[in-house]
Structure formats: structure tokens, C-alpha cells
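Example record used in the benchmark description.
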Amino acid sequence: MSDSSRIDKWLWSVRVFKTRSLATEACRKGHVLINGLPAKASHIVKPGEIIKVRKTPIYRSYMVLAPAENRVGAKDVDKLMLDITPPEELALLQTNKDLQWITRERGTGRPTKKERRDMEDFLDF
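Model output (C-alpha cells):
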């Protein structure tokens, strides 16, 4: 392990993103915040920094414990970062996952008038 690392490389190293180019793209789009400010891909990661990553529909929060240059195994990720995502965000993620069944299957066409009314009645609570 090195004593410094770029944010895009660190996010790839700790398995937040599958590829480094995806991490770089997220930084470019403003989906990565460091201490509340948008981060460039070249930002040097320091221990103790709070990193927020927009993974639809929530922001995942991580605390940097150590920089990393190379991709580490899944068992070693907890030595480099601490997941501090608030429980409210995780609850929102679970709610979103529970509502997945409401979507229509591809190829089933438009809902009929009766199906649409049933969906509206269900969603109105």
C-alpha cells in the first residue's frame, strides 16, 4: 500500500466501482463528494476524509482509513474504509427495492384501463 492515492483509483481499489473508468466518470459527473464538495478524479485521498458516492437512489458514505494503489480482495476492504451510510439512506434503498415489483414486465404492452385504475388505487394508499 502507498501513502497516497487518487480518489478514482481508491474507489476502484476498495470495490465501490467495478472499473477505474467508471469511478472517473462518477467524479466527472459530480457523483462523488469529499467532505461535502464535488471531487475531481485527481484528488488525493487522506485518512479520515468522508466520501459520499451517489449510487441511485441514495448517497453511500465512506470514511477513508488508508489509501490504496491496487485493487484489494473483498476481505481486505474493511482495512481501507468504513461504511458510514446512515440507516435512513439504507431504509430508502430497501423501500425502493420493495417497490420494484410494481413495474411491468418488458413486452407486456400498455396497461389496460382496469389495470391502470388498480395501480392508481394501490399507490394512493
